[in-house]
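User: For my dataset I need records formatted as: sequence, then structure tokens, nothing else. Please produce one.
Assistant:
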Amino acid sequence: MDEIWTHDPKKGSDWQGYALRIAIGFPGDRSAGTACLGFLWAQHLFNLNQEVRCDRFFKSDRQLKKGERLTAVETGRPLSDYDVVAFSLPYENGFAEVPLMLSQGGVEPAASRRSRGPLVLAGGMAASANPEPVADFVDAVAIGEAEPAVGALTDALLSLKRARASRNYSLEGRERLRGLPGVYLPADYVHIFGGDGKLEAIEATAPGAPEIVEALRADRGFHAAHSTVVSRRSAFPGMFLLETARGCPYRCRFCLAAHTSGPHRPAARLVETAALGLRRCSRIGLIGTAFTKAPGAPEVCEMAAAAGTRVSFSSVRLDSETLGMLSRMAGVLDLESISVAPEVATKKLARVIGKDVSGDFEEFIRSKPLPGLKKLRLYYLIGVPGETDEDIEAIAETAADAGRRSNCSISISATPMIPKPFTPMQWAAMPEMFELKRKRDVLRRVVSNTKRVDLKVESLKGSVEQAILARGDRRLGGALLEAAVNQRAGGGTRWMALIDKYAPGAAEAVFFERGSQERFPWGTLSHGAERKKLRAEFEKAMRASRENEEI
């Protein structure tokens, strides 16, 4: 079997027996979607209600034929058959898939022209931070985490379905969802732009529309999210994923998760949940920031060892506590290869981004605490404010030194720093494309002169597009919709040209620092961080980028 359910929803093939039918989609292929814990967990939460069946759909891996529809995995039914279509959007580049997948599924993409349904929802980290680029396509967005939102959302949707909406399904759906905690209705607000294309004001136009929608967060002691289905077709084949924590104990200035996910909260019932996974799978992957700080993590590793398997994990911050645990559990953890994110290689840039792990990394290389380690994956940013060629060259020098002293092969992954909403860097400028290319070429040149160091640089074009979407406004909806129409017809997207057509200046704005008083498209949302505090951190970062100031 390609898939093993650890939580079989037991919905079977029955269709008529459910009061509410939801199709939840992931804006990537099945391999990536089956490795996305947030997407799988949201489906599970909806399916806990016995009146609901929630099925999955994914981006098609081929051009659909004329008349062919995008369908749900569990039923083979097109999206148009469902009462609700929901999207899990963990990254901004997935925004472009929303109108395309709706259209392929037989659903009118434009919410303003959709009267008979289905109702279209969105959630996930990218949508929670700034849903405006997809505002034209969705009726509602869940802001924040799923656990405190799903119950009230489901009750409201069941109420809508039982009422058999006779006027306008989307309109009545929004009326029932309005005022629910953590639910943002884009149609309730008008965005007013000036002649220069800048956002001048956001006005609530619907009675009862909240001035600010506060993001929801699960309480401390939330049940650890985990794989509900394990697939050999996943990006992590056959691996049971287990969430150890949410939030982050650090506040790196560029990191969206650090500023929108709240305080660091270890998940509850880790050992019990890991035991469930070990009954079905031979591999466990730990997900979450600072996973070594989670109560129960050592016990999970010991349990895995007793079962004859090892535990994998995402990138780690090599502080003394983490190194201690990794050393103690070296015989249990999958430590042949580990990932570390220094982000930058010089003290000056560490002060800019608010993250300095150089001392911990030096101690790790010096002490060689992990026997059997063969490969280090190092993640770095390029295009950080104040960056010079010497800062870029230091990346290769640090990696080469780590390789020599650790006797490991080194893999560098470099990506441009993307200014994200709700972070201090939301005001920052990206270097222009020609400068990003030059920085990439400098890094390639110095790495080519080092031994046992491989380099991968993320797509510069894709990174700039992601930055446009991350801080974009709802005018981008026109570009996304026309791109979807072109793609369905088998044509190219001409993405940058479409941006210029519908949102003049939006692409160029990525390369300019934002003003301190500039209005942002996500101004109707709150994730708890005060704007003035974020701005103060940004100004500290800018001073550090110009000086060798300790901050």
